[in-house]
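Recap from last week: sequence in, structure out.
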Amino acid sequence: MLQIDMIIHTLTFKYALAVGVFILLVLIGFFIRGMLLSLLDRVVKKTAMRLDDIVLETVKGPSFIWILIPAVYFSLQILPDFSEHWSLVVDRIFLSLIIISITWTLATGISKLLAEYASKVAPNLPVTSLTQNFIKLIIIVIGCMILLDSLGVKITTLITALGIGSLAVALALQDTLSNLFAGIHILVDRPVQIGQFVKLDSGEKGYVTEIGWRSVKIRMLPNNTVVIPNSKLVNSVLSNYYYPEKELAVLVQVGVHYKSDLEHVERVTIEAGKEVMKTVTGGVPEFKPFIRYHTFNDFSIDFTVILRAKEFVDSYMIKHEFIKALHKRYNAEGIEIPFPIRTIQQEQK
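Predicted structure tokens:
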């Protein structure tokens, strides 16, 4: 009976010791973590670079795991009857957790660094959610290969099996893969970029808000979002109103009576256009409007007034204000804008 009590006492002591070691290691780990983060935070605030901020933000979360893993590992070593077999299993589990945490930290950190510095280092490199997710995927795949290799899995055999299986997957996911590769094509060829105003041949037009792995999101002027599959965008005729620059011509069609003095009409129209360019938001003040006569129509001489806007959406207000100003000036100057007249002949029987 005494021997059983001693065994129970010993087991209780070892379990209590394991729990105590775990708590002690966690407290030491959190203390060291707090000291290091506090020190790094002070150093980061003194620098103007974003690099150290990103690194600090990235490691804050995983640092909890890096504290708990060794605490649990060393605590388990104290437990009674911790056989060599279980020791090997635990070693592999904890090695896997370390590899997974480091892989995820690197994937997140490099993705953030790419978003922050890619446009500065390489201005022609497009950075979108697709680019960031693609980089993350590559790092995670590399991490998985390292993990499998550490667990004794033959990677070459696995790659061969995946190669055969990927053919079936590719056939089953034709549309998805088509959109994925179309998204990569959009990033490389860059027909559109985030923030640009575009119009598709199917009629959708608006600001590009996101280029993803499957679709492009366009916020239309009524403030609703239309989702265009990447493959459809690549195969459509697209007008980019921000390429090669935002400024664009605003064309207004006008017609005047045949009896009008065309020199007088031209002078008055240009004066009204200059006033609109200077006073309306979105107009280009230094631009000199001009007109071009082009058609002897059935009831009027038609011409085009060429104005200029800073970007596409400004053209609506410029046309609105110009038509009002021109109508007012024409009335004041006695210039007539004709309307269709039809003569109907009726035979008397």
